[in-house]
C-alpha cells in the first residue's frame, strides 16, 4: 500500500467533511450552505445519468425543485469512503450510498442503494465538489397506502421537534 | 479551512470511538459499559426534546426501561461525523442517524432518521459524552401484521447465533 | 485512552479501506478483486456461525453461489469501526452492519443488522482480512408480493444506469 502522510490524512478528512456537509444540506434543505460546497462549473450525474446537470445553478435548481417541498422527507447516507488524492489539489472519491425518500404528496416511499463517484478540487485552501454522481445498485418504490396502518410519527418540518405529529 | 494537527485527528478519532461504543452498548444492551461513556451530569434530549433527562442515572434508567426487553430489537447507526474541537477538553459533534426498532410485544416496526447534536468533554485523559440529543427528519411506524408473511428470522437474544428462529 | 500515533492512524485507515473494498466487491459482484483482499487461509463465520468456511476458495465459492446471480440485489453497509492494533502486523475490528437483500427470483426482501468481528494481518506491507464473521441483532424476511404495488425501479445489472426499469 502507498505511504500515507499526515497531510494526506488531513486532506481526506476535509473531503469527508465536505461530503457530510453536502448530505446535511440536502436532507435539511439548506440550499444556501450547499451552494458554498460546489464549484461554479460542477457536474452532477444522478441516477446513473438520467438526471445530469452542468453548473452550480442548474444543480441547485434541480435539487430544490425535486426535494425542496416540506412534504418531501429524505435521508441520504454515504458510507465506505475510498478517497484517492491524485495531486495536491485534486482527488476522487467512491462512496456507498443509501437513501430513503418519503413523498407524502404522492403517497409513496422510495428506498435505494448505490455508489457515488466524485471528483474534488482544492481552491483557495478549501476542498470543493467538482463532480458528483451515482449509479444505483437497486431502487424500489412502494405506495404507502399498501401498508395498512403505516403512519408518519415525526417530521423535521411539521412537528417542531415533538415526537408525535398528533402531539 | 482551519489547519488540523495530528493531535486534532487523534482527538476526533477518540470522540468517534466514544460514539461508536455508545451505539454498540445501546443495541447490545450493555448498560454497564454504557455507564462508563457518560459524565455523571450528562444531559440527554431525545426525539427533539420529547424525552429529556438530566444525569447519568436518569438517562440509563430511561434507556433500560424503553429498550431493555429482549423482545425489543434495534439498530441505531450514526454517520457523517462533523466534530468541532472547541478547546483541548471540549468538543461538539453533529451526526446523521438512522434507526430501526422492531417491537415484537407491540407488533410494530419503527424506522426513522435525524441528526444528533452532542457535546463531549475530556476528563482525566478520556473523552466522554456530556450532552447528547437528536431531532428527527422523519419517523414512521407500521404494524407488523399489515405485511403478510413478515417474519423475524434471527435475533441476538433468541437464536444464539443460529440464522433461523426455527433452527 | 492509549496514545495513538500517526502510524496507528495510517494502519487504521488502511484497515478501513480494506473493509470498504470488501463490501464494494460484495455488492458489485467483483469476485476477482475480492480475492485480493483475503489471506489464503481466511476464516469466515457468517450468520453467527450458521455459514462457516475455511479458506479463500471456500469463502469465495459460497459468496458467488449465494450472491452471484443478477436477480440478487444487495446493499451491505458497515459502520462504527472499532479497530484495535494488537501488533505491528495484527489487528481486530468490531463493526456495526446492516444489510438489505432483494431476491427477485424468490420474491422476498431480507433486512437485517448485526455486528462483525474481524481479524486482520499485514503481509508484505498490505493489510488483509484473516477472519471475518458476524452475529445478527435481528433479521427479518418479507414476501415482496405482500406489499401491493411494490416495484423495483432501478438495477445495477438490468437498467444500465437508467433510472427506470421501464425507461
Structure notes:
Three copies of one chain form a homotrimer. Helices cover 24% and strands 48% of the residues of chain A. Chain A has three helices and seven strands. The longest helix of chain A is centred in the N-terminal third of the chain and has 23 residues, at 6-28. In chain A, β4 (90-103) and β5 (108-123) form a beta hairpin. Chain A has one domain (6-143): Nuclear Transport Factor 2, Chain: A (Roll). Chain A has helices at residues 6-28, 31-35, 56-67, and strands spanning 38-46, 51-54, 72-85, 90-103, 108-123, 126-143, 151-155. Chain A has a six-stranded mixed β-sheet with strand order 2-1-6-5-4-3. The N and C termini of chain A lie far apart (55 Å). With 167 residues, chain A is of the alpha+beta class. Chains in contact: A-B, A-C, B-C. β7 (151-155) of chain B pairs antiparallel with β6 of chain C.
Amino acid at each position: 500500500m502507498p505511504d500515507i502522510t499526515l497531510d494526506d490524512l488531513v486532506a481526506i478528512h476535509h473531503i469527508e467533511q465536505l461530503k457530510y456537509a453536502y448530505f446535511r444540506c440536502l436532507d435539511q434543505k439548506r440550499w444556501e450552505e450547499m451552494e458554498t460546497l460546489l464549484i461554479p462549473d460542477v457536474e452532477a450525474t444522478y441516477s446513473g445519468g438520467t438526471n445530469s446537470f452542468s453548473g452550480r445553478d442548474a444543480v441547485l435548481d434541480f435539487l430544490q425543485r425535486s426535494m425542496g417541498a416540506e412534504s418531501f422527507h429524505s435521508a441520504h447516507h454515504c458510507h465506505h469512503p475510498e478517497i484517492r488524492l491524485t495531486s495536491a489539489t485534486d482527488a476522487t472519491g467512491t462512496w456507498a450510498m443509501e437513501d430513503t425518500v418519503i413523498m407524502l404528496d404522492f403517497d409513496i416511499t422510495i428506498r435505494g442503494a448505490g455508489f457515488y463517484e466524485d471528483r474534488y478540487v482544492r481552491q483557495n485552501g478549501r476542498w470543493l465538489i467538482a463532480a458528483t454522481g451515482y449509479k444505483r445498485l437497486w431502487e424500489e418504490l412502494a405506495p404507502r397506502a399498501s401498508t395498512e396502518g403505516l403512519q408518519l410519527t415525526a417530521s423535521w418540518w411539521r412537528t417542531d421537534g415533538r415526537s408525535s405529529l398528533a402531539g
